[in-house]
Amino acid sequence: GYLTDDEDFTKPALRKLLFELGIYERNKFMLTKDQTLAWSDLKTRQIDEFIRVLKDSVSTYRYSTTFERALLAPSLINPDSQIWLAQNYAKAVKTYDRVIVSVAPESYNAENPTEWMEALVSKAGDFPDGLEKTAFRVLMSSIEAGTTISEEESRERLETLSDAGARHLVYTRQPAISKR
Known about the structure:
Blueprint: H1 11-21, H2 33-61, E1 68-71, H3 74-77, H4 82-85, H5 89-95, E2 98-103, H6 113-125, H7 130-133, E3 134-139, E4 141-142, E5 147-148, H8 151-163, E6 168-172
Parallel strand pairs: 1-2, 2-3, 3-6
Antiparallel strand pairs: 4-5
């Protein structure tokens, strides 16, 4: 799951935020850039902590269970996206057994999809264990862009990612997340 920049301003969430920031009276529209980054980091940490508790509970009964975190591409190539996604690729690589990054260049209006995909793989390679722990998921359809790509295009994307150095590839016919 993810929380966008304007989600989860519930009273319990705001109490936690104010405590973390050491402030007493703020409204969401008055957060400074640093406070917004701290808020985003807090939301990401809360999601990761929730998953860690689940992982610990499940691992008690299923020792060989692995945990994955599905991320949207901006979390890998644009660290500021944590503000609106509450997803942090660097932390996910350290925290989870596998990180799944959705690959849909049309969702992000990539001018050159090949270069965009190569940049994703290259950026993952900048992190310790990044390529080993990251699976790139090619989506045949994009809800955001309202498009569907052909099987040939999907194959070309998989080849581009592989040629760029990706070690783990996933092919998905349906989008993982729908707008509701």
